[in-house]
Design brief:
The structure is a homodimer. Chain A is mainly α. The first copy, chain A, folds into two domains: about 160 residues, Orthogonal Bundle (Cytochrome Bc1 Complex, Chain D, domain 2), CATH 1.10.760.10; about 130 residues, Cytochrome Bc1 Complex, Chain D, domain 2 (Orthogonal Bundle), CATH 1.10.760. The first copy, chain A, contains twelve helices and four strands. In chain A, the strands form two sheets. A two-stranded antiparallel ribbon of chain A has the order 1-2. Chain A has a two-stranded antiparallel sheet with strand order 3-4. In chain A, strand 1 and strand 2 form a beta hairpin. In chain A, helix 2 packs across helix 7, helix 9 packs across helix 12 and helix 11 crosses helix 12. The first copy, chain A, starts with a helix and ends in a 29-residue tail after the last helix. Chains A and B meet through loops of A and loops of B. Chains A, B: Its cofactor is heme. Chains A, B: Keywords: Electron transport, Heme, Iron, Metal-binding, Oxidoreductase, Periplasm, Peroxidase, Signal, Transport. Chains A, B: This is Cytochrome C biogenesis protein CcsA. Chains A, B: Pfam families: CCP_MauG, Cytochrom_C.
């Protein structure tokens, strides 16, 4: 096999069953639609947990400093992300990786770029105790909450127990996060039958997105989030990192990451696990070359970007939560220790 | 004059006209009521500016790092404060002073502890350009906003000009801040005629607050915020700082600070310009001894604290704003430069 054929073989390998199905129906363009699905509101949520979890999500007292909350890096004013290459943690530490959006994250097959958390509940405990992020301890975070009567009562109401534990904390945060969906994007309107929801350029971008193979990894309701793939298939990516191998221990999983959702991608810059690409044009160009072995023309690139911007859905709307105050028994924040 | 008389003379001096009036009516206890006033909603606001200012208040792109917004230190989930002794600024710098609450701040005679800003509009420009806080430059902040079409359009709609300037930015933020009032506290209900709004202990605390002289400085609708006073009248306060002298250049103004509002004081811990007192009991004890030469008994202290907690009003209720995204023309944040 020559180099070109090897590339193609590799692309085909990665694209897998979904891409194969997609390629089989390339003649019937509209059949690509079935590889996606509109974002749906969650079918069942526990509203008590949602309201409690919302407070916890915004409460910086889950950090040692009293300054960093979940919302600091998954800012719900900014697409559930911090719009920084890598996040800022306790004492302004520079994080090792880009903060993925929390929006629609319940749809992902696992959490974190390397998928080391099975679900949102498991994820929520990570940053609280990570010395480079919120730098706290689960036991201390629970002590803080337990000391605040309004929290103690709310946990008791919902979980039926006098003593709060970290499982309840992460369970409530995860329940709130389940509500962070963004339905009714123009792409979803299109999928649901409003055929004029996309402009001619956006439709051209959608066609390119499908036929050039982006869909191989970015499919399903979240246009991603449902598989791990190697970063740098055709050409290597600089600074690819360990990726999924940190979880599986398998050398084959090096440079592999959970495919990020493209939902609201207009809002969740910068892009990639290292946040190195600041614009959609740059991200599309790099993905085309490194993953598909294809250099998109300027026009093609612009059309794909136009399509990607149709993935911005309705952002979660809710009142800023008011947090119950600490008191004399509450462990005090230690921002400079 | 002996030492005791000197203390009393000094207290009387500081208490001034308001205290004199108060003392004159001490026999008619209820007459103290007229030294206060309920919090009123603003009589006139420009809703366009309010909505724009709300976005700006939550937008960390007004900082060099892209991580710190007005709401970082004046957190509207936490009484408009950060509940830290002194704030955390760019690169985790430790601030020199406690962040005052933004709630009801339009009622203050000036802004900042030393009153160096005449009003909210002037105040809003300070932290953006302060190297220890948001560490940005006004020109760059304006450039960021101008590059974002949705902001450019909103400024044009409201101010009628194609080019944004920093005056518009601070004007809109100030207009939003005017809405951050907290009406309908139980104390306000009491002032408005609901005589059973306060419990027996709270009323006893109110009586003590008046008759021991707290009212001399903490009066008016904001129970403070309307005069500068020396910290440490009867006894010196450790770490009193330059205070108002930094503005006036007068030696007599050393250790003087704007009297903080006691509205929502239950939420705005820790207390004093240095945030050294973490509990209301501690703050009341120190104020009694240093400002009034009076050691409150444990019961008196508890009654005053009970009264102070009746000053918690209805917190501002609004939807978390969604910020328009940056684009390829937007200056990128520089958190680690």
């Amino acid at each position: 096999m020559n180099s070109r054929k090897r590339r193609l073989a590799r692309v085909t390998l990665v694209a897998g069953a979904v891409a194969a199905a997609a390629l089989a129906v390339v003649a019937q363009e509209r059949s690509f639609d079935q590889l996606y699905a509109p974002i749906q509101p969650p079918k069942s949520v526990d509203l008590g947990k949602v309201e409690l979890g919302k407070k916890l999500f915004f409460d910086p007292r889950l950090s040692q400093s009293g300054f960093i909350s979940c919302n600091s890096c998954h800012n719900l004013s900014m697409g559930g992300s911090d719009n920084l290459s890598t996040s800022i943690g306790h004492k302004w530490q520079k994080g090792p990786i880009n903060a993925p959006t929390v929006l629609n994250s319940a749809l992902n097959l696992a959490q974190f770029w390397d998928g080391r958390a099975a679900d949102l509940k498991e994820q929520a405990g990570g940053p609280i105790a990570n010395p480079g992020e919120m730098a706290f301890q689960h036991t201390l975070a629970v002590d803080v909450l337990q000391s605040i009567p309004a929290y103690a009562r709310e946990f008791k109401l919902i979980y039926g127990k006098d003593k709060i534990d970290i499982d309840m904390v992460t369970d409530a945060i995860a329940e709130f996060e389940k509500t962070l969906v963004t339905p009714n994007s123009r792409f979803d309107q299109y999928l649901l039958g409003k055929k004029d929801a996309l402009t001619k350029d956006e439709l051209a971008g959608y066609k390119l997105f499908n036929e050039s193979g982006c869909v191989a990894c970015h499919n399903g309701p979240n246009l991603g989030g449902n598989s791990f793939q190697k970063m740098g298939i055709v050409e290597p990516y600089k600074g690819a990192g360990d990726g999924r191998a940190a979880v599986t221990g398998k050398d084959a999983d090096r440079f592999s990451y959970k495919v990020p959702t493209l939902r609201n991608v207009e809002l969740t810059y910068p892009y990639f696990h290292d946040g190195a690409a600041w614009t959609l044009a740059e991200a599309v160009d790099i993905m085309g070359r490194l993953q598909l072995g294809r250099k998109f023309t300027e026009q093609e690139n612009a059309q794909i970007v136009a399509f990607l911007k149709t993935l911005t859905g309705e952002q979660p709307v809710f009142r800023l939560p008011i947090l119950p105050p600490s008191n004399e028994k509450t462990l005090r924040p230690r921002p400079f220790d």
